[in-house]
């Protein structure tokens, strides 16, 4: 029974994402191609309503998935190892319009911290290398023993991971020292789809954090819900290729949109 309910729920969610309409028992039976009666499907529906997976607005209507069910579905659908490819930014713009979602793209450099040098306890030199571009850069910092120990622990890490970690521990001065390495740019599309964030102070801060690209400093690849974003929204962060260049990409929109084509 559990397996059949799981299959049925998946079909209900997929059809709801496509149509935006409640799903009736007969339609669900046909979609899932299950050899059971409509009455059995209705019993499955009742069970899933009791579990908080489906909703019914009134007795004669079909069912729709709850936010809880949609969250579970998007977690299952997200594959962090899969890298999407887009021909160009126009392709991204088309996706933003199709899905009614905000799209942010961070064009990455590929620096790694390769060495930390202490010059007579006067200053530190952090040496970064971008192997793909055969490029090296250095960052010079005033010496402090705690900073030296902190930097030593980061050797071998990618710049974007260092930024994320430094943001989490609020090493703001250290973060600012890396600005000279951050010459790659950020673009965003479909900002109108997150305009509702401006309705309160937390959402306003998040809106500008998104539209300035600052959100990439603290979010790793993954799926995010209302632990960070407003209730009813989902955000995917992942790596991708745009016009052959590796980027970090973020999609943010309502839970009920169908993101299957970008996952």
UniProtKB/TrEMBL annotation:
<dbReference type="InterPro" id="IPR036390">
    <property type="entry name" value="WH_DNA-bd_sf"/>
</dbReference>
<keyword id="KW-0804">Transcription</keyword>
<keyword id="KW-0678">Repressor</keyword>
<dbReference type="InterPro" id="IPR036388">
    <property type="entry name" value="WH-like_DNA-bd_sf"/>
</dbReference>
<dbReference type="GO" id="GO:0003677">
    <property type="term" value="F:DNA binding"/>
</dbReference>
<dbReference type="GO" id="GO:0045892">
    <property type="term" value="P:negative regulation of DNA-templated transcription"/>
</dbReference>
<keyword id="KW-0346">Stress response</keyword>
<protein>
    <recommendedName>
        <fullName>HrcA family transcriptional regulator</fullName>
    </recommendedName>
</protein>
<dbReference type="InterPro" id="IPR002571">
    <property type="entry name" value="HrcA"/>
</dbReference>
<keyword id="KW-0805">Transcription regulation</keyword>
